[in-house]
Design brief:
The chain is mainly α and 473 residues long. The chain contains 12 helices and 7 strands. The strands form 3 sheets. The chain has a 3-stranded antiparallel beta sheet. Strands 3-4 form a two-stranded antiparallel sheet. Helix 2 (108-128) packs antiparallel against helix 3 and helix 6 packs parallel to helix 10 (355-380). The structure holds benzoyl coenzyme A and fe (iii) ion (2 copies). One fe (iii) ion (FE) binds next to helix 5 and helix 6. The site of one fe (iii) ion has 4 residues, from helix 3.
Length: 473
């Protein structure tokens, strides 16, 4: 195992000090990153003490410390999980050969593209969440937002390290370009659709961290299986941090649901909006929106890119090594419902070409479990309302379901019928304006929470919920 150099300008466990060229390159990128953070990171609060977790080691026991930190002083570092001795490529055409410690020349472009795509999402999400601090429902939530933000920043560092260490000049150019693209920018947008959508309110933030960060979990899981060992190792460590992002999302939505159920019960007409809360129907629409946008992040159901990623050994399935027996997948097929002549028919797709869909199904099953936990919370709150995930065909922009309209149940329907129901299925401008109207200012007194959300049931790192997670004085 490699010792952590925590005194270095860039904390790392990759022995950066022994590679002066790389160290210089990263130290040159560092001020550009900090400029970007200042311009596009959280608006306000940069001079405040925030009770943050900082990664200081890549080991399961005690990999992080919690303390007050001002965000610009956060120690963004480069941490790879320990090397597995004699690790072999686990799948694809090179299965059984030693894992690559250098970039395999024939796959250079493909690998760089995968890393750039992964990297691009990290700063994008920080940009999307830039203004949320202004309207935080509590200090606890404010702290969680900033925790997610600084760690997405660290994920960017993790990918930039790979680009600069292994991809020469083009890697350096891509590292710079990551600080130039902007979420939602007309001329230089982020690469994937979901990362160009607005995240203007906290219900969106909680849906985003539930559904979009969860795409991160599955994509990182697939890349953690990679035959390119440095990528696998860095993704393994990123997954440790990711768990908290998913927690923030799931518990956030759950607290909104619980509060909404209470306010619905309180109202003589059963209308949570009359009680200053968010009605459950609106929450369902937000779920529909972010689940479908996040499904798009898995790419096409039938994809030659996915087949190439798998064949080359660069990107596996979720838990490829431990969960599957056949790691070659040249003979197997995956049945995929395809729209033909006005109806859906199951078609056999060569498994390698269906790898995006295999990963998407893992993801959708996981999302289903989250919704199950939300529904148990609704039940405990005495509500008979249940959140339901729409079909994976509903409201898609990418893949084979993008050209045809589907109902939330996944039935093909006319685009007229879809449009006629759009306002029932997806958030309207009025819904968004209503949600935003509840969140015009932050709630910053320790222990207080906004009216539209229930308090957290416990605090962070053993601290009470009413702890001063961000010091504003
Ligand atoms: N939006 O063969 P296809 C995270 C493009 S999230 C726009 O169907 P492929 C995080 C595609 O690029 C995890 N474009 O798909 C979460 C291709 O373009 P070209 C991020 C899209 O390539 C929260 C064309 O359509 N990590 O970490 O098999 C906060 C046809 O593509 C989209 C990764 O994504 C889209 N949604 O799969 C912070 C892992 N979907 O080549 C962080 C790396 C597809 O025709 N990326 N396209 O120009 C990949 O593995 C693959 O690039 C994808 C796409 C799975 C994304
Ligand atoms: Fe991330
Ligand atoms: Fe995340």
């Amino acid at each position: 195992m490699t010792a952590i150099d925590y005194e270095a300008r860039i904390p790392n466990n990759v022995d950066l000090a022994s590679d002066k060229r790389l160290q210089r390159a990263l130290e040159k990128w560092q001020p550009a990153f900090l400029d970007w953070w200042g311009a596009m990171g959280p608006e306000g609060f940069q001079g405040r003490d925030v009770f943050l977790r900082t990664a200081v080691s890549a080991h399961a026991d005690g990999w992080a410390v919690f303390d007050y930190v001002k965000m610009p002083d956060y120690r963004w570092g480069i941490f790879l999980s320990d090397r597995v001795p004699d690790r072999k490529i686990a799948f694809g055409d090179h299965a059984g050969l030693p894992a690559w410690q250098e970039v395999p020349g024939e796959y250079r472009n493909m690998l760089q593209r995968l890393i750039v795509t992964q990297a691009d999402t990290e700063p994008a999400s920080v940009e999307q969440q830039r203004y949320l601090g202004q309207t935080a429902p509590s200090l606890y939530d404010l702290r969680n937002l900033f925790q997610v933000n600084v760690e997405e920043g660290r994920h960017l560092w993790a990918m930039v390290y790979l680009l600069q260490a292994y991809f020469g000049r083009t890697g350096h150019e891509e590292a710079d370009a990551l600080l130039v693209r902007r979420s939602g920018d007309a001329d230089h947008p982020r690469i994937l659709d979901a990362f160009n959508q607005k995240c203007p309110d906290w219900l969106t933030f909680f849906c985003f961290t539930t559904f979009t960060d969860r795409d991160g979990k599955y994509q990182l899981g697939a890349l953690a299986e990679s035959g390119f060992d440095p990528l696998a190792r860095t993704c393994r460590f990123m997954l440790t941090e990711e768990a908290h992002h998913l927690f923030v999302g799931e518990k956030g939505v759950q607290r909104v649901l619980t509060r909404s159920a209470e306010l619905t019960a309180l109202d003589p007409n059963g209308d949570a909006r009359n009680q200053g809360g968010i009605d459950l129907d609106t929450i369902q629409k937000y779920v529909n929106y972010w689940f479908s946008y996040s499904l798009d992040l898995f790419g096409g159901e039938i994809s030659s890119n996915a087949a190439d990623f798998f064949a080359s050994g660069l990107k596996g399935r979720w838990k490829e090594e431990s969960k599957y027996e056949d790691h070659i997948c040249t003979d197997a097929v995956q049945m995929v419902p395809v729209y033909r002549d006005g109806r859906l028919v199951e078609e056999a797709v060569p498994l390698r070409n269906a790898m995006n869909e295999v990963l998407r199904q893992e993801y959708a099953d996981d999302c289903d479990k989250v919704v199950g936990r939300w529904n148990r919370a609704l039940e405990s709150a005495g509500s008979s309302f249940r959140i339901k995930l729409p079909s994976t065909r509903f409201h898609r922009r990418q893949g084979i379901y993008a050209d045809q309209a589907y109902s939330p149940d996944g039935e093909p329907i006319s685009s007229e019928l879809f449009e006629a129901n759009r306002s029932r299925w997806l958030p309207t401008d009025a819904d968004r304006a209503y949600v935003a109207s509840l969140m015009t200012r932050g709630v910053y007194e320790p222990g207080k929470v906004a009216h539209w959300i229930s308090p957290p049931d416990k605090g962070i790192d053993g601290r009470p919920a009413e702890f001063e997670y961000v010091r504003l004085t």
